[in-house]
Amino acid sequence: MRRILSFSVIVMIVSQCIWGQKLHLPVPSVSPSPVQKKQIERKYGMFLHFGINTFHDEEWTDGSKPASSYNPTQIDAEQWVRTAKESGMKYVILITKHHDGFCLWDSKYTEYDVANSGNKTNVVETVAKACKKYGIGLGLYYSLWDRKVNGNVEDQSQDASYNDYMLKQLEELIAITRKHTHIVEFWFDGGWVKQNYRWPIMDIYQTIKRREPECQVGINWTIGSPDKLDVNVVPEEQKAGYPFRYFPSDFRLGDPYLPADNDPKVFTHDGHDYYLPWESTICISQRWFYNTKDNTFKSVDELEKLYKRCTKNDNVLILNCPPDRDGRLRAKDVEILKELHKRIALQ
After folding, report:
1. In the chain, what percentage of residues exceed pLDDT 90?
2. Based on the number of CB atoms within 10 Å of its own CB, is 108 exposed (0-12), middle (13-18) or buried (19 or more)?
3. Is the pTM of this model over 0.90?
4. In this structure, is residue 4 part of a structural domain?
5. Over 50: is that where the pLDDT of 80 sits?
6. Domain count along the chain
7. 1 inside domain
């Protein structure tokens, strides 16, 4: 059956043609695309939550902590990436900017970054170099919500300037990493603080795909309700044909929930069907960021069960292992990952 494109997509296509730029959009399908198959084959990766929160025993700081308080004694990115590789993981996802707005690279657009901190190492570039050295994929997390630059999210008059700020920072991140390796995934967070239409999702997608066409783009809480689009629908309640909250997207997120058993994969936008794998994100201990009080770790038995659940049915597991204030993975993380690898390597 022939389908009619929405007015917004038609406007985007016309504008792209006028400016001589190719429009990048997911192709409607009820099965995974070749690039989605590559993501599905990666199957298992490491989340690296590291930043200013690491030094305050807090998960979500608000942008008021001084940049100087970020002060790791070193950045042993090779240990992070080597551990992921030796644990059977195919890629890492680095937090580049969390909700606090602190950037792990020297950004031209803010002073709230590593260049003004106690350790000026460009962590993004250092991790990209390590990924190239160890032959492992690089993913980047970027928070749409920025409590430092765009603290008053209710003020819609700030949207245009803040959206421009985000796009420029994404261009910076791509320029930094492309010198060393390709980005396999962009993981966006924090969209729930504004109505979905206030985020420049199409512009974000084009900014990435023009430079990294095989990079998979996902936005936390991807799927909405048929009755009310802009709500979080947990995976247990998602059904085939439910609409995208954020289009275009290449896979589904709904942190920290796990996929339903034999979860649906086909979702809709403007009357078209799209195949969307699910990516689970799980903490190896209890917190996302390193915390001096976080000393309870999941057992290898529990992690093995989670691995089986989260990697079947074309889905992906990302296991969070937060580097500490010395810029290294904790010894317990490494120990657990090695034992878990022995279990899952036999499957």
Report:
1. 92
2. exposed
3. yes
4. no
5. yes
6. 1
7. no
